[in-house]
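I am writing to request your help with a piece of structural work I have in hand. I am sending you one protein, given as its amino acid sequence and as whole-number tokens for its backbone shapes. Kindly check, if you would, that the fold set down in the tokens agrees with what the sequence suggests. You will find the record immediately after this paragraph:
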Amino acid sequence: MNNKSNNDKVGKVYLVGGGPGDPELLTMKAYRVLSEADAVVYDRLVSDEVINLVPAGAARIFVGKQTSNHTMPQEEINATLVNLALSGHTVVRLKGGDPYVFGRGSEEAIELIKAEVPFEVIPGITAAAGAAASIGVPLTHRGMANGVRFVTRHCRSDMPLDMNWKSLADPDTTLVVYMGLANMGQITANLMAAGLDGATPVIAVSKATMPEQRSCKATLATLVDTINAQKLNGPVLIIIGQVASLADIIGSEMISHGGSDDDEDVKSVARA
């Protein structure tokens, strides 16, 4: 990281969506600001391939979170962003997916406003869109789903999930569950208790858009057993609804994930 004195003008923070994992799915603007960064503060869900795009001279600050294991509390992350910017640095706060979809980007934006630090938000492809596209599942489809809802399983330790299950158990809406692996038993049981048919198609996707991507198909009633049998590891995203059945029709006809051999020269740039 370049050395700058505290007397220099205040720097800037970019809240950047790193997308679902594949570095080719970054926006051009995200790629540009990464190349200009003095410091990159990044989450656990940002792929190694995206991190490899960070310039060699930039500081890399890992602040990833897992259940009951936070590398850095949110308050310290906020303070880190503010202090780096007040020291005159160009800072990229790099998040998996999109900063404003379960990414706490708005919390960080509020703290930057309080500290009078200039910032900009650069959206990214959220995990739901990336995973769905990679397996050939549209999130909406005429006659199957006229809407889509994103939810996260996050809750306080040892506390039940507090959701409006009746509202979520809508057969005409696609339900996408982020980070739901640990609580999937509760989620499926509550949805069925609220009236959603146990035969509703479901597809679970692990490490979406990456070469090691895996997915498994099930029904709402069989999802937990299917995931356990296939040993899917996180991060896992769950798509619940009639659209999941289209993976067999659309996904089977798509070009395999990772592209053709002609793409290899392009991909090698991201791996370098």
